[in-house]
Amino acid sequence: MKPHFHLVAATVLAGLPFHAQASSPTPPQAKPQSSFWGRLFSSPRPPTLDPPATPAPPAPKTPVKKAPSHKADSPRSETSPTKVAQKALSPEQRDELVRLQIFLDKALFSPGKLDGQPGELTTKALLHYQKAHNLQPTSLPDNLPMSKDGEIYTTYTIRPEDRKFVGDAPSKPEAQSRKRYLPYESFLELVTERFHVAESLLVKINPTLKLNTLSVGDTLTVPSVEPFLIEDVQETAALPKKPEFRNRRIRVDRNEHILELFEGDQMIACVPITAGSTTLPTPPGKWRVQGITLMPTFRWDEGVLNHGVRTDQFYNLPSGPNNPVGIAWCSLNKPGIGIHGTNHPETIGRAFSHGCMRVANWDIIRLVNLITSDIPVLIE
Question: What predicted TM-score, i.e. pTM, was given to this entire model?
Answer without folding.
Answer: 0.77
